[in-house]
Amino acid sequence: MSGIYIHIPFCKQACHYCDFHFSTSLKKRDAMVKALADEITLRKEEFKATTVETIYFGGGTPSLLNTKELQFLIDTIYYNYQVSTNPEITLEANPDDLSEKQIHSLSTSPINRLSIGIQSFFEADLKLMNRAHNAQEARTVLAQANQYFDNISIDLIYGIPGLSNERWQKNIEIALSYQVPHISSYALTVEPKTALERFIKKGIINNVDDDKAHEQFHMLIETLEVNHFIHYELSNFGKEGLFSRNNSAYWQGKLYIGIGPSAHSFNGSQRSWNVRNNSKYIKAIENRTLPLEIETLTTTDRYNEYIMTGLRTIWGVSLDKVGIDFGMSYKKYLLQQSQPFINEHLLYIDGEKLMVTKKGKFLSDGIASDLFKLNL
Q1: Fewest CB within 10 angstroms: 68, 137, 205, 372, which?
Q2: pLDDT tens for residues 150-172?
Q3: How far out from the chain centre does Cα 276 lie?
Q4: Is the pLDDT of residue 215 over 90?
Q5: Which of 62, 13, 4 is nearest to 33 (CA)?
Q6: Could you tell me which residues come within 8 angstroms of residue 137 by beta carbon, excluding any fewer than 6 positions away?
Q7: Which long-range contacts (CB under 8 A, 24 or more apart) does 239-246 make?
Q8: Is the pLDDT of residue 375 over 70?
Q9: Is the pTM of this model over 0.85?
Q10: 23 touches 279 (CB < 8 A)
């Protein structure tokens, strides 16, 4: 089982917090779509022995492409790969791109899941983040999307400077009122070289308050669990049967190909990533070469990645798997390193699974890093 991720490297404008690869110029749009299709074709041998279960259009802003362009890329995948009879095909979209006509058009295509970048239902938050949509568009698009799609996910951001707990709770309640079956929610992080970092350094925007973000994270968990969402990954909540199959495959170490500039791939033993430059990417693909760098993972690399992804999920880290896949010395090391966190009630062992407690969830990435082995 495997997945294909397609990075659409265009946005209308730059959000202040974003450090993903994109361009606000659409001049190379036609050439980019052709290059994406050509890379899909060039890499078909990598998946000749597996079935594609998920196709995910991410970015950037994939909803800037029209249905015809998206269909062309999907057709290229179907022509070159073995695709399952019921694949999950997700389109990330911004509210300002989704008119009712566009939503209807998408619903007639093979796309069967929308992931809508709402981020907040309040104008002050959207302006601070420099989002291209406004609060009313967020509400309107959800009402319309519900008429055409059953499988909808929305993104929400907490820990925004100036976001009170009351307003955050209201954000969650508004989301629930639209009965979306999946919510991805992230703490606002200050990435290097972003506009947000510059504004904070200049004192224009207050810095992110980690304690406030921690409070809002637990408010989110409590509210969504009461409403029958399953907290299946650190930042993801879904109704039963409606987890993101694409993201779940990533956390469970399944294979995927990343198409497009800056996109990452994983084949079980190697990671690779394409150049973060639209012009260089297009030129390389036109010359029938893959513009990527490759890293072969050591046993320790693979162990560290498994710990990081496993602790973020409800599936936890299998102690048996660690022993079998990486060796008993790794299992012994993991148990030794885990003990202080178990004593502090941040980790616990359930059967043969190492899991994060409710208290430890917000700290899971930091805990995981303390369980890593060094490549010595």
Answers
A1: 68
A2: 999 999 999 999 999 999 999 99
A3: 18
A4: yes
A5: 62
A6: 95, 96
A7: 239/181, 239/182, 242/151, 242/181, 242/182, 243/182, 244/88, 244/90, 244/113, 244/115, 244/153, 244/182, 244/184, 245/53, 245/54, 245/88, 246/3, 246/5, 246/54, 246/56, 246/88, 246/90
A8: no
A9: yes
A10: no
**HEC string for the chain:** CEEEEEEECECCCCCCCCCCCCECCCCCHHHHHHHHHHHHHHCHHHHCCCCEEEEEEEECCHHHCCHHHHHHHHHHHHHHCCEEEEEEEEEEECHHHCCHHHHHHHHCCCCCEEEEEEECCCHHHHHHHCCCCCHHHHHHHHHHHHHHCCCEEEEEEECCCCCCHHHHHHHHHHHHHCCCCEEEEEECCCCCCCHHHHHHHCCCCCCCCHHHHHHHHHHHHHHHHHCCCEEEECCEEECCCCCCHHHHHHHCCCEEEEECCCCEEECCCEEEEECCCHHHHHHHHHCCCCCEEEEECCHHHHHHHHHHHHHCECCCEEHHHHHHHHCHHHHHHHHHHHHHHHHCCCEEEECCEEEECCCCHHHHHHHHHHHCCCCC
- Strand ordering across the sheet containing 264-266: 230-233, 236-238, 182-187, 152-158, 113-119, 83-93, 52-59, 2-8, 255-259, 264-266, 270-274, 292-296
Which class for 351: exposed (0-12), middle (13-18), buried (19 or more C-beta within 10 A)? exposed
- Lowest model confidence (mean pLDDT) among 22-26, 64-68, 296-300, 343-347: 22-26
